[in-house]
Amino acid sequence: MEIDINPRSSSKIADSLTKSIGLLSTFTIWVLIVIFFGYIAYKGIAGAFSYGFKSLFFSLDFDITNNKVSFWAPFGITIFLALLTVLISIPIALRCSIWINFYCPTKYRKLISTILLILANVPSVVLAFYIRRYISPVAHKALFLNTSSNLVVAAIALVCMILPLIIVLFNSVLENKKSWIISAELLGLDKNYAIHKIVIPKIKHTIVIALSLVVGRVISESIMLSMLLSSENYQQSYGNGFSGFINSQSNSVSALIGENYFSDGSSEDVQNLMFLFGGLIFLVSLTFNTFCMEWVKMDREKVNNTSKISFFKKAKDKINWWILCCLFSSCKEWENNECSTGDFIHKAQTKNLKTFFGLIRRGLEFLCLGLFVLYAFSLPITVLIGGIKSFVSDASFVPSQNDTLFRAINNTFLIVLLSILFAAPIAFFASCYVSEYLSNKRFKKYTLALINAAAATPSIIFGIFGLFVFIQTLGWTASGSSGKSLLAGMLTMVLFILPYLTHSFYTYLSGISDNYRESSYILGISKCRTFWKILLPIAFNNLVFSVLLTTGKIIGETAPLYLTAGLNSAPKTLFMYQGQTLTTRIYSQLYESNLAKSEKIINETTFYCLLFISVIVIIAKYGLGILSYEFWKKKFQSFNFLVH
Q: Cα separation of 210 and 200, whole Å?
């Protein structure tokens, strides 16, 4: 007896099933994020009442033992680091990106893009040890600093961390602007002049986005800064003048949270205070990002008014003209009406007055490029040399011991695999529902805002949330509420990557042209088949790329894992026992008394950490063709052809 299944009926069932799973996934994300933010607010309010609003917001004294806990003291350090990082990183990144897109041979650009992605995913704990060993002594002598660990060195470390990511951001915009340069050159304009006068003003929105990205990363960074800065004596930092301030070792807000929450004997009031500080820096970061995005949106909608010139534009033009008058006599003669406009233009063309600023720009480009190339090559070379030295000596790759490299690799891949398996399906179906099925615009707006807010939350906040909920409250460890466990670390990482994955998936799915959807619906194809048969194959490579980058993100995280999974490993890999990962293995060497052993462990672990991240990035850049939907579809079609 044959059962005739109506194709339309099966299509409706599939459509209803996809929509229901997507709705359930979206609801799950809403519940998790609301609980997360609600709990932070609850603990933060408790901390505020414990220490008092006067001590928190109307004082500049900081001494936890005496209940003096001014938020402005560590926040001032954070603002200074953010400002210094912005002033250094964005100009260097912009000039490096200009060279890559307009002067570098095309055949090398994909290789440079791969190197940039690898550097952008270097764990902060690896970068911190690199800065401590090589950059800090050089900066100490070259910049005439009093100490080798200070705010200037911390800002340099933040620049090294954020610079590759900003260059990637600028590259994604500038690679589509080459036609403007060609048009300008056809009109007789100099290439360098066209880049700085035509292209750069057109990407000001991207520069503002880069600004928000830099500030957000600086505010949220905790592990690297806690390894470079270790003081809470803010009164001494602010009281010794500017020189004493930049040479101080005072912690930023995020680094302060990690140190005080993880320190032995920290009271419940101190822990609540750290939740409050975490919530405050989250609000600051969210407010600044919102302001930047709204400014970009308003500027795009604003009608250009050529009759009005801003005050800053006038001031800039006057300064430029004053410099030219000081350097070239023809400019002064024209200003005093001693020569005609025609003669001035002739002299300008023959004497090449424009090349003055052009030479300065080119010189700055080569200087910035040289600094970045020095960092880009020195980091992997030093890691490689250190790894080779550790392999020549007695290896610690022994599975039978507790704290071994083998066990750290095993724990890392276990957390990565399970976190992706839990988070990716929820993020995929939620992004599918929001992109294709959710018709309520207000609810869609709130959902995206909630996801973006969670994605911008510092990782240290997820760490202290996971520590309290999964360990101190639920006791999901073999030692109860006083222990650590791989399960708690894995669940914390699921919460951490879920908003990021959902945002990435939604961006790629919603970015597909509506022409595909409209054409499919006109032909009578259901929404479900349109998504699975048309939209998903188009976005498949980008979705896999997001998963691979998320894998690198998990490998590089330290703060959420050292608070929940611990710094040591149990004799066996069990979910209810603690287990160090690659990054927490590196971080644990701060507490190792045997310096020779510590040096060797750092060298071998950083080598493997960078190796795994490099492999992931190379697969993402060069191996997606093999992983693509169309590749395997053709393979199966050819196999069926051979069989039949």
A: 14
